[in-house]
Design brief:
By secondary structure, this protein is of the alpha+beta class. Helix content is about 30%, strand content about 20%. It is built from 10 helices and 14 strands. Bound molecules: N-oxalylglycine and nickel (II) ion.
């Protein structure tokens, strides 16, 4: 795959465009009208959502450990509903230290605010995506998103190369380890809850993903201020290709939007919450009982935005297929077995393209 060894055209850091003080964004970032943030955002639809103050469900995870059995069951039910109906929810009282969350976000914000030259030594290539990047996909002439990012492998240990993580700020690597360990633990707990809710053994999903050999990657997104936020997107619509995603959003600026009833709902982050969403591999293993859901990010002209997305993924060379227990005569297997390595090549080549990929995999019938 030679095409994945280098970028098809010179890389432009969105941060440098933003800082250059331009008042009009380059054509490369201008989306066709139907993809722009305000499109389809008719006054009526906006009003409707505002009137009902629609937001993704917020779940108090502590209730799962309550002595009150009915509260525990009710919480499992809320999570089940969120997984089926939204593919997205927020968790509070999740056990990860709020101070650690704050420090992790802060250290990454400081990293992105370093001068561009300090970050260039981490410049990534499309062969692994590891490092400092400014685009997804290698299609020449593609319309680009208004964001820079840093991508790194956290698990398995064999792929963890701390020398590729930022050496500055000096506490960055240590914080990545502390944060990574805690969030990976939380993902493990959520995998159990999802397994139970699917009527599978508690360890089913974790085992299907490779037990202790699961993968975990961190992508830290930086969305610089944008002079024309109505013409572009920080991140185009996509579903996450992996298993579960735990997102730590910016505490000051919203931007994440989730597709619901064919409208885009802006997520209103709860204080100290993580945003959880199902990736395509959970859709495959659950035989589409749970669905990965399209989401995108809008930008604004007033403030930069930072978010940390931890992707909890199957071991990359393991065939992933619908759980036998969820395949019946009435509901045959919707997807053929495929490894995550094969799967992810597609998004890495084409860039974010909504849910086209997981849908295209459906077994012919
Ligand atoms: C992602 C993602 C959302 C955000 O990184 O896959 O969807 O709010 N991020 O940055
Ligand atoms: Ni995403």
């Amino acid at each position: 795959m030679n095409c994945l060894l280098s970028w098809p055209e010179p890389v432009v850091r969105v941060q440098s465009l933003s800082e250059s003080g331009i008042s009009a964004i380059p054509a490369r970032y201008i989306k066709p009208p139907s993809d722009r943030p305000s499109w389809n955002n008719t006054a009526a639809a906006t009003k409707n959502f505002e009137a009902t103050r629609i937001n993704i469900p917020i779940i108090n995870l502590q209730n799962l450990f309550s002595d009150d059995q009915s509260l525990c069951e009710e919480t499992l039910g809320l999570i089940s509903h969120a997984c089926r109906e939204w593919g997205f929810f927020q968790v509070v009282n999740h056990g990860v230290s709020h101070e650690l969350m704050r420090r992790a976000r802060e250290v990454w914000r400081e990293f992105f605010l370093l001068p561009i030259e300090a970050k260039q030594e981490y410049a990534n290539s499309p062969s692994t995506y590891e490092g400092y990047g400014s685009r997804l996909g290698v299609e020449k002439g593609a319309i680009l998103d208004w964001s820079d990012y840093f991508f790194l492998h956290y698990m398995p240990q064999s792929l963890r190369k701390e020398s590729k993580w930022p050496a500055l700020p000096p506490s960055c690597r240590k914080l990545i380890r502390e944060y990574g360990d805690e969030v990976v633990k939380l993902c493990g707990r959520l995998m159990k809850v999802l397994s139970i809710n699917l009527g599978l053994g508690e360890e089913y999903l974790q085992n299907a993903f490779g037990g202790d050999n699961i993968g975990a990657c961190l992508r830290v997104n930086f969305y610089p201020k944008c002079p024309q936020p109505d013409l572009t997107l920080g991140l185009s619509p996509h579903s996450d290709p992996g298993g579960l995603t735990l997102l730590l959003p910016d505490e000051n600026v919203s931007g994440l939007q989730v597709r619901k009833f064919n409208e885009w709902v802006t997520v209103d982050p709860a204080p100290n919450a993580f945003i959880v969403n199902m990736g395509d591999q959970i859709q495959v293993v659950s035989n589409a009982i749970y669905k990965s859901v399209d989401h995108r990010v809008i930008v604004n002209s007033a403030k930069d935005r930072v978010s940390l997305a931890l992707f909890y993924n199957p071991k990359s060379d393991l065939p992933i297929e619908p759980a036998k227990e969820l395949v019946t005569e009435d509901r045959p297997a919707l997807y053929p077995p495929m490894t995550f390595d094969e799967y992810r090549l597609y998004i890495r080549t084409k860039g974010p393209c909504g849910k086209a990929q997981v849908e295209s995999l459906k077994s012919p019938r």
